[in-house]
Amino acid sequence: MLSTANAADTTSQNDNTITSAKDIPGKKVGVQLGTTGDEYVTKYEGDEKGTTIERYNKAADAIQSLKQQKIDCVVIDEQTAKSFTEKNSDIKILDEEFAKEQYALCIKKGNKELLDKLNNAIDELQADGTLSDIVTNYTGSAKEIGTKPYNEKNVDRKNGTLVVATNAQFKPYEYYEDGKIVGIDMDMMRAICDKLGMELKIEDIEFDSIITSVQSGKADVGAAGMSVTEDRKKNVDFSNFYAETRQVIVVRNTESGAAGISFFEKLQQNFVDSSRWSYIVTGLGNTLLITLFAIIIGIVLGALIAIVRTIHDQNHKLKILNFICKLYLTIIRGTPAMIQLLIIYYVIFASVNIDKILVAVVAFGLNSAAYVAEVIRSGINSVDKGQFEAGRSLGLTYKQTMLSIILPQAFKNILPALCNECISLLKETAISGYIGLTDLTKAGDIIRSQTFEAFIPLIAVALIYLVIVMILTVGVNKLERKLKNDNAR
Questions:
Q1: Nearest-angstrom CA–CA distance, 104 and 228
Q2: Mean pLDDT for each consecutive 10-residue tract of the chain (489 residues)?
Q3: Which of 166, 186, 204 is nearest to 282 (CA)?
Q4: Within 10 Å of residue 335's Cβ, how many Cβ atoms?
Q5: pLDDT at site 256
Q6: CA–CA dist 13, 297 (Å, integer)
Q7: Which residues contact 90 (CB under 8 A, 6 or more apart)?
Q8: Strands across the sheet with 174-177, in order?
Q9: Per-residue model confidence (pLDDT) at position 414
Q10: Do you find a cis peptide bond into 25, omega within 30 degrees of 0?
Q11: pLDDT reported for residue 16
Q12: Is 274 left (phi over 0), alpha (psi -120 to 50) or beta?
């Protein structure tokens, strides 16, 4: 039997309650990937008490995990934490300050001209009270919030476009409202563009991709509640500080006694309120568009590759083209689709202002072609060699035999496999959000970041994918039956 002292020690070890930063060792801590909160808690990782750090792409995901008791606390910016606790009474912010920090804009290293312009604009906005009004409009008292919105000025915007990279899931600094990205940072950037005589273009991407986007020239400025750290200063330059804040610890509020809302109220909150259904419609349209054109590229390019490899296998010709095709297949099939998408966007098209949907079509099309090529090649090889010999004996050329006899039969054999590739490609487009493109999955993420409800948005997105897959499957089954009937005749 345990002594009283040992029992007390055991209770302490099993108690996951956090009342201050001293209680963090040995607990599961959630942070948003790449933030200063991530940097601050990393020192606890791997300590002798077994502290675990859970890193999430979105702050809302970390909060959701906290609510579901998957982690013990979340370290996050104070103003963002307040936005979460306002809508979730079952979590609370500890009074103790975890760390102080200051926010600044990040700019590509060496771009002193732009840096000076931004610094001058920030100084002017601070001096005339505009920046103070913007902050008050989002973080002031209950009577002040919403009373001092920034209204863009009617100025000559002859100096071009300023592209700003952000992560619009960090309320009150940047978030979606009525389909538009708003917040302290975004209003400040609108005010800066008024000062500089420039158009503002906002790119919503993952937080940990912002610095990469600025480095590669995809964005001119990074504005996402970003603190200045020594590691970040090695990669980008920073403007003057424009906000002071602190990192806080968010924990579960066991005394809240919060009452849940009904299923129909959740449906209204997730899709009806603020017309959030529009995100789903936009995302679905982009997903279908990317899938359609990517599969066209995949089939055309894949067929060409398959033919080159088949000719080489049969006649030992086209050795150089065959080598290039094999190298292409090895690289594409040996690397993740997400890495390919990021390389194409941030490396290959680094200095090109190109539409993101086109980038996604190219990336997924090239990825699909590698798999389609092997599917088609296996289909060609499945056709009896006597069919090819019969075509040639009738006086048909190699090309005529391939197009008129071999490929039609191969197509029938590979139809189920091609259908599977279409389905896989449709689901692979779910990673498009990594380059800031609003696809179906990203649309669900945007809704989750606003409502803090995981179940309904995720289930809705999953059901839409399921319905599309079922429609594709039914269509292919009908085509297969038609082909069988044609052969029977």
A1: 7
A2: 39 64 93 86 88 89 89 91 86 90 93 96 95 92 90 93 92 88 95 96 90 92 90 92 91 74 85 90 95 95 92 85 94 94 89 87 96 90 81 81 81 82 92 89 87 85 94 82 66
A3: 204
A4: 12
A5: 67
A6: 57
A7: 67, 252, 253, 256, 258
A8: 169-170, 174-177, 180-182
A9: 84
A10: no
A11: 67
A12: left
d(CA 111, CA 209): 19
What per-residue string of b and e applies to 91-129 under the rule 16 or more CB within 10 Å gives b?
bbbbeeebbebebbbbbbeebeebbebbbebbeebeeee
Q: What is the pLDDT of residue 259?
A: 59
Cα gap 52→165, rounded to integer Å: 30
Token pair 């179940």 is found at 455
Residue 41 Cα distances to 69, 76, 108, 293, angstroms: 19, 11, 27, 44
Decide: 425 and 61 in contact? Cβ < 8 Å: no
- What tokens were used for 59? 């702050």
Look at residues 164, 163, 152, 229 and name the one whose alpha carbon lies nearest to residue 195: 152
The H-assigned helical ranges of 128-256 are 130-139, 184-196, 210-216, 230-233
381-387: Cβ within 8 A, 24+ apart: 381/310, 382/410, 382/413, 383/409, 383/410, 383/413
- List, in sequence order, every residue forming a beta bridge with 97; answer none if it has no partner: 248
User: What's the rounded Cα separation, in Å, for the pair 109 and 115?
Assistant: 9
Tell me how far apart the alpha carbons of residues 334 and 426 are, in angstroms, rounded to a whole number: 20
**Closest alpha carbon to 18 in 5, 28, 10, 31:** 28
3-state class (DSSP) for residue 182: strand
For residue 21, the tally of other CB atoms under 10 A from its CB is 18
How far apart are the C-alpha atoms of 296 and 71, rounded to whole Å?
A: 44
Kindly state the tokens that stand for 348: 């290959």
Q: How far apart are CA 429 and CA 308, in angstroms?
A: 28
- Residue 258 is predicted with a pLDDT of 56
The single-letter code of the amino acid at 62 is: A
pLDDT computed for residue 46 by the predictor: 82
SS3 335: coil
